[in-house]
Design goal:
By secondary structure, the chain is mainly α. The protein contains four helices and two strands; from the N terminus they run βαβααα. It has two domains: about 30 residues, no CATH class; about 70 residues.
């Protein structure tokens, strides 16, 4: 039985570390080929982080990591709900398109 924790990433090579994903207790959701901006990390999270980190500099990876954690923990629930609703809308659009590429 699964943990009930799911992770939706695109199919980029750096995201194919399934062993680590499973070790963290997540089940990876299938991502249709060539469907850009379907994963919340692509259409919401990375842009959000980029905006928040703009003009910042860090002495080391630990400082960067701490700042990213701080930013992620500060995301308002309303923004997370909007991202979730948008994800569901995009998934339905992909399903309605037979699993093919969506723009």
């Amino acid at each position: 039985m699964g943990s009930g924790l799911y992770l939706h990433l695109d199919n980029a090579k750096p995201h194919l570390a399934n062993t680590e994903i499973i070790d963290l207790g997540f089940e990876r959701l299938v991502h249709p080929a060539y469907s850009s901006d379907l994963a919340p990390s692509d259409f919401f999270l990375f842009g959000f982080l980029k905006t928040k980190l703009r003009s910042s500099s860090f002495v080391n990876e630990e400082d960067l990591f701490a700042k990213v954690v701080e930013i992620l923990e500060s995301i308002p629930n309303i923004d997370l709900k909007k991202a979730y609703d948008e994800w569901i809308r995009r998934l339905h659009r992909c399903i309605d398109n037979g699993g093919n590429y969506i723009e």
